[in-house]
Write a structure and sequence with these properties.
By secondary structure, the protein is α/β, with parallel strands linked by helices. It is built from 14 helices and 8 strands.
Length: 316
C-alpha cells in the first residue's frame, strides 16, 4: 500500500464541559495549598470528581467492543436456540444467515411468526441479532443478477423487524468486484437502495476483496451513510494481502459498520496480527460488534469458541 493509506492525524483532545484545563489545575493547586489535602481527602471533597468530569471521555474509558458470532459457525443456522447457546458461551451477539426458503422465492426469515420467535429468543437470552448475512447473493450476484436486487429489497424490512441495523451483502468468488467499472456499477445499483435503507434504519454493509482505497471510492460514489464497509480482517490479510490494521485505521469508524474476525485455524496462530488489529479498532474509536467467523479445528465448536473468545478478551 502507498502513503495514501497512512493513518489520519489524531485530533487534539478538547476540554469537556464548562471547565478549561487551566481552571481545573488552578482550582486543585489552590485547594492543596489551603487545606493540604491528601489524595484520599481530595477524592472525598469531590474536587477529583470535578477533574474527572472535565476529562475527555477517551481518557476515562476505552470504547466498548463486543464479540459476537455467526450462527453458521456455531452450526446452528436457522435455529432459534442459537441465542441461548451463544449466551452460555459468553457471546454478546449473533449474526444470522438469510437464505432462500426451500422450494420458494422468499427468504427463510420472511415469515412474521418466525421473526416473532427470533425476537422473543433475543429478549429471553439478552443476546441481540447484530446483523443479517444475505447469503443468497453467493448464488445470485448483486453486480449481474436482477434477482439479487429483489433479495436486498426483501431483506431490508426483515432486518428492521428483527431489530438489527446491519445487512451484510457479500461479494466473493464469481460475485466479486473485479475492476473499477464493476465497482462503479455496484455503487450505482446501491444508490437506488438509499431511501429504503434510511427509512428502515438499516446499513447495507458491503464485504468484498477490495482494498481500503477502492472501498472508499465505492462509498464516495454511493454518497450515503447507509452504505458502509463490513471489514473482514481474515479476508484482507489472507486473500487481498494487505495490512488489516493499517486499512482499519485508514478507513476509520465512519466507513466501517462492523468487523469480521477470522484467520486460518485458531485466532493468534495464523497470519493476522490480532494485537495490532485490536489496537487499530480501539484507535479509531469503534464501539460496535466484532463478529467471529472462525473455523473449529478440534471439531468441538463450544471448546474452540471459548478458546478464541479468551484469546480476544486477553487483547482487550
Amino acid at each position: 500500500m502507498d502513503s495514501a493509506l497512512a493513518a489520519k492525524p489524531r485530533k487534539r483532545l478538547r476540554a469537556v464541559g464548562t471547565f478549561a484545563w487551566e481552571d481545573v489545575a488552578a482550582t486543585l493547586l489552590e485547594a492543596e495549598h489551603r487545606m493540604t489535602l491528601s489524595r484520599r481527602n481530595l477524592l472525598r471533597t469531590g474536587a477529583a470528581a470535578t477533574l474527572g468530569a472535565a476529562l475527555p471521555s477517551a481518557l476515562m474509558a476505552a470504547p466498548k467492543i463486543r464479540i459476537g458470532a455467526m450462527d453458521g459457525i456455531l452450526r446452528m443456522r436457522g435455529k432459534v436456540e442459537v441465542f441461548d447457546f451463544a449466551a452460555r458461551l459468553g457471546l454478546e451477539g449473533i449474526e444470522v444467515g438469510l437464505t432462500r426458503a426451500q422450494g420458494s422465492e422468499t427468504l427463510n426469515l420472511a415469515d412474521p411468526e418466525l421473526q416473532a420467535r427470533y425476537r422473543m429468543a433475543t429478549e429471553k437470552s439478552k443476546v441481540p441479532i447484530v446483523g443479517l448475512v444475505l447469503s443468497t447473493l453467493h448464488e445470485n450476484h448483486f453486480k449481474s443478477d436482477k434477482l439479487a436486487l429483489k433479495w436486498v429489497h426483501d431483506a431490508i424490512p426483515i432486518a428492521r423487524s428483527l431489530r438489527t441495523r446491519v445487512l451484510l451483502l457479500p461479494f466473493f468468488g464469481p460475485a466479486a468486484i473485479q475492476n473499477a467499472a464493476e465497482r462503479d456499477h455496484v455503487a450505482d445499483l446501491l444508490k437506488d437502495f438509499r431511501p429504503e435503507a434510511e427509512k428502515a434504519g438499516v446499513v447495507l454493509a458491503v464485504e468484498n476483496t477490495l482494498t481500503a482505497e477502492d472501498n472508499a471510492a465505492l462509498l464516495d460514489r454511493v454518497g450515503s451513510k447507509w452504505v458502509r464497509v463490513y471489514y473482514d480482517v481474515g479476508n484482507s490479510t489472507n486473500m487481498v494481502g494487505v495490512d488489516a490494521a493499517k486499512e482499519i485505521r485508514w478507513l476509520g469508524k465512519s466507513r466501517i459498520c462492523q468487523i469480521h474476525l477470522k484467520d486460518t485455524g485458531y485466532l493468534g496462530e495464523g497470519k493476522v496480527n490480532f494485537p495490532d488489529v485490536m489496537r487499530a479498532v480501539r484507535d479509531i474509536g469503534y464501539k460496535g460488534f466484532a463478529v467471529l467467523e472462525t473455523s473449529s479445528p478440534s471439531h468441538n465448536v463450544e471448546s474452540d469458541i471459548r478458546r478464541n473468545l479468551a484469546y480476544l478478551r486477553g487483547l482487550m
